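In this section we walk through a basic example: taking a raw amino acid sequence and producing a predicted 3D structure, encoded as C-alpha cells. The instruction is simple. Fold the sequence below.
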Amino acid sequence: MTNPPPGAAVVTGAAGGLGRAIAAALHADGWPVLLTDLDAEAVAVAAAPLGGWSRALDVRDEAACAAVADEAAAEAAARGARGGLGLWVNNAGILVTGPSWEQDAATRRRVVEVNALGAMNGTLAALAVMRAQGHGHVLNVVSLAGLVAAPGETVYAASKHALVAFSIGTLADLRLAGHRRVHVSCLCPDGIWTPMLHDRLDDPGAAASFTGTLLSPELVARRAARLARRPRPVVSVPRWRGAQVRLFDAMPGVALRLAPLILAAGRAGQRRQLRRTGADQHRRNPAR
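The resulting C-alpha cell sequence is shown next.
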C-alpha cells in the first residue's frame, strides 16, 4: 500500500490545462490539494471534484503567496494530514512568441514577473514553512525552453532559464544550510497540448514548441506526481528530448546553423496538429 503523502499540496495556475491535470494526479495519489489561480471562479470549478479546496492567487503578489503557504500548512493539520505543507507546485506561467524586439516593455515584464518572479515568490513562501517544519518539496514546472534557447520564444525561454538557475541554486543553498529533507525540483516537459498552445497552430513564433511529439497534460501530470514523491533536481519529459536540447545548448554555434531546419520541423508539427485537431472536431460535430 502506498504511504500517505507528507502533507498538503499547493498547485498554482490550476484552473485548467496542466495545472488542473497535476492537481488531479496529486489528488489521485492521496494528496490534499489546494488549487490556486488568478481566476477565482474557474479554479473553484476545477477544485470541486478534488475536495473543493481553492483560493484566488496572483503569484506576483509575494504576501499573497506567503498567506497561501501558511493556510495550506494550517489546513493540512486541521484535516489530519501529517506533515503540514508537503508540496508546492509552481505551475502558473504565460507564453509570448515572436522576436524579442517586437514585444513591448510591459509584455516582457509580465512574462518575467509571472514565470520567474512569481515562481520565486511561491518557492520562498513554501520554503519559509518547509524549513521551519524540517521537510517539504517545491516542484517548479519549467519547460524544455528552460534548458535551451528557443527561437521565437526568446523572452519566455529567458524567464524559464532564470527559474532553472534559481531552483538549482536554491537547492544548493538549502543543502549548504543543512536542510537535507527540503527539496527543489524542476520538471521540464516538451510541448504540451493545453490551451497555452491551442491558438498557436498558425503562429510561426511558436514553432519550437512543436518540434517534438506533443504531450498530453495527463502524461506530464503523472510524471509530476511521481517526481513529487521522489525529488530530483531536473527531470525532462521525455528524457531523450532533454538530452537533445542540452546538446544544442552545449554547442550554440551548431544550434544556430540548424535553427532553420529545427523550426521547419516545428512548422510541420503545427500543420500535423492542425490536421489532427480538425479531424477531431469533425468527429465531434459531423455534418448532417
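Looking at the output, two observations stand out. Residues 252-284 form the longest helix (33 residues). The mean pLDDT is 92. In the next section we compare this with other chains.
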